[in-house]
Structures are given as structure tokens and as C-alpha cells.
Amino acid sequence: MAETRRLLEAAAALSRILREGNIPHAFHGSVFTAEIFCIVEYGANQTHPFRRVRDAVADTEDFTATLSPWTNRLHVSYRRPIPPVDIEILPAGEFGPLHLDNSTVMRIHDIPFLTVSEFIRAKLNNWVIRGTERDAQDIIYALSRYWNRVDINRIQEQDMNQFVARYEVAAPAWAAVRRKYGV
Q1: What are phi and psi of 16, to 5 degrees?
Q2: What is each CA distance from 163 to 70, 110, 113, 159, in whole angstroms?
Q3: Cα 89 from chain centre
Q4: Measured distance CA(102)–CA(151) in Å, rounded
């Protein structure tokens, strides 16, 4: 629980800075490995999310931004707690929805997070590409506990059917979602 508190503190602090800069964003993470990611929209004139975040945290003492050009990743470290909390910045549309609005984002403790459907969709897309066990476990966790909050229209059915064929433990929850929508 202490690690979750640290992640939420870091997310809240980064969210405050991004809101001040009118930068649409939403968080999601891994349930089991205590990782947190921040999806950021492109700006006016297609300003890349990495630049928007680097500019937003440039004058703060609590954050540092580290760009890794070899892997095309931006990590922001929240330095107030010890050890610091690392948040990976992900471009909207590449990892998660292209537009972050009321249909794709929900607020938890005044922090924007992806909705359950968008979380599962992002994790499922990542699982299809990389096949990581961590993403599979997150999908199973979210789907089995929150199946009644899943919008079937936001989930690639072919990908989910492939997922359920590999992880049969997810089959009852996916079947419940399908029943809910009369599919």
C-alpha cells in the first residue's frame, strides 16, 4: 500500500503541472509491478508530447526528465520521495486513445486515469505486440473485476478472442461482457 501511495503522490504532482500547462493527460499502470505511465496528447501544431512534458517540468525542483533517444522513451522522475518515482511518458494514440476526454478518462482522487475500457484496450494492444505476461495479468485482473464497466465497442474483439484462447481464466469475464451487449 505504501508503494501505491507513492505512485499516486507522484501522479498527482505531475498532473498538477500538466494541468497548469493545459496539457491533456491520463495515467495508467501495472497492477502487479507498481509501474505508472502517463499518456500525453500531442499539442497545437503537432507538438510532440515529450517536448510538452519536458517544457512543463523544466522549472520544477521536484521533477527531472530524461529522454532516451535510442529507445524513444521519456521518463520523468519525481524526486521528492526516496527513492524517486519514475513515470514513463507515452504519446497518445500510440499507447492508448488519441484523444483524452470524458469518454476515455475517469478521475480518481482528482487524478486522471484511463477508463477501464481504455486501460484494457491499451494493455491488450501492448500484449498483441509484445506478448508480455505483465500485460496479460493486468488484463485478467481488470477484466475479471470490472467486466461490467467495459465498453465492448472499445475492445478489438479479434484480439480479445485470441487473448482468451491463450488465457482461459479470462473467458468467463469476456463472456459476461459479450452477454451484456447481446453478442
Answers
A1: -60, -45
A2: 30, 32, 24, 6
A3: 9
A4: 14
Indicate the Cα dihedral angle 31, 93, 183, 157, nearest 10°.
-80
- Length of the chain measured in residues: 183
For 56-111, how does the pLDDT look when each residue is reduced to its tens digit (9 = 90+)?
999 999 999 999 877 788 999 999 888 999 999 999 988 889 999 999 999 998 99
The CA–CA distances, whole Å, from 87 to 30, 96, 157, 164 equal 12, 16, 30, 30
Q: DSSP secondary structure string, the chain?
A: -HHHHHHHHHHHHHHHHHHHTT--EEEEEETTTTEEEEEE---GGG--HHHHHHHHHTT-SSEEEEEETTTTEEEEEE-SSSSPEEEEEEETTTSS-SS-STTTEEEETTEEEE-HHHHHHHHHHHHHHH--HHHHHHHHHHHHHHGGG--GGGS-HHHHHHHHHH-GGGHHHHHHHHHHTT-
